[in-house]
## 1
Amino acid sequence: MVMCVKQMRKEMFMSEKRLLFILPEQPDEQDVKYFMQGWKKGTMVVITFQASRKPSKEDRAKGKEGISPHNINFQVYEPKIDQCA
């Protein structure tokens, strides 16, 4: 398992591919900051939304239901480079 994780980290470092998360609602600001730090560093982060999974009474009144790990989707982002000849 450790070797698999090391290989994944190496491949992420060598590649410019990133994961884009598709969420059912806007996550908590604390969760956004955590993921943006990981995005900028190019490191793996745990895909959980600790602060967003149980919204407060005020957030529930605004229509937020919470972000469950089951309703998080993602797609791979890879920069496209146009080769001009």
## 2
Amino acid sequence: MSHPYDPRCPHCIPAIVNMDTGVPYEMGSPVMVQVLRVWNAAPFKVRQAFIAVTSDDSRAPEDMQLVEPLMEKLTEAIRVATDN
């Protein structure tokens, strides 16, 4: 189990991997800029649920319900950033 979500923790953010290279995108990349824009706009409780689902494998209905709209927004942010 990872530690609880802490907004001051540099590791408590989504990690996005480039599917072509298998390497995580760097913080200043267009993908991470867009992802972090969405992430930073999300309410604390939603970010907390995201970390619980992605890091701790939570399947609690409350967590899943909070995370679903965020995942849609993150997916769209990645799509926008990677469209050429």
## 3
Amino acid sequence: METIDYTLLIQTVPEVSKKDGSVYTCTVGYSPQKGWIRVYPMPYNKGLKRWNTYRINVEKNKQDSRAESWKLSSYSRHEQWKNFNQDVQLVGSIREADRKYMKALMLNNTMQAISQLNKDRRSIGFLYVLKAHAYWDVNESYVNPHQLLLFQDIQEDYDPYTKQDKQFHSRINFQDQDGTHNLMLNNWQYYMAQINFGHKPEAFRYINNDPQILMLGNMFSYRNTWIVLESFRQPHNSLLL
């Protein structure tokens, strides 16, 4: 067990655990002690916020051999996250200068292509792209909640915050040295935008204009399959560290 500071940047769309049926999210962020890491499973309904720094006790996830993967050391998950606020202590929200510093760290760690991430056996990585286009696509796994009302046994397993509840999901097109990619953009903030504003293109207004730093993560079961976790706007005149 290790105690680290962890600045949360990403929460993925909540999923249902195949192991115990609980709903959880995967988080990705930066730790001065560990670098860029993922910490999961984490609850989606305990007020975790982007750019907040938390002090947490973590250990390696024995079921996930990826170097960047960690989990909480506590048993709160097995107690329906009863003592989560004690296990995850808020340090505070980082300053704007620290946010710019983290983006500079991303830029300094960008690769030229996804194939480089595979070669280096990364499971979290960054690409710098001059142009990206994010958009809404039809969610083929969408489950209509009104139809579920007809089937009580299915209704009991249904959770309104998972991918199945959204009619559309976000995707992103971009080019690297390997060629053109069309990947899932798996970030909960865009799914929540559907609830608040509908599936409007304005959700991607900070992506479809300037050059971008793409944060990517690979799939647990398919290590050469990648999804985009977030796209950070990067002006042309940004300086490296």
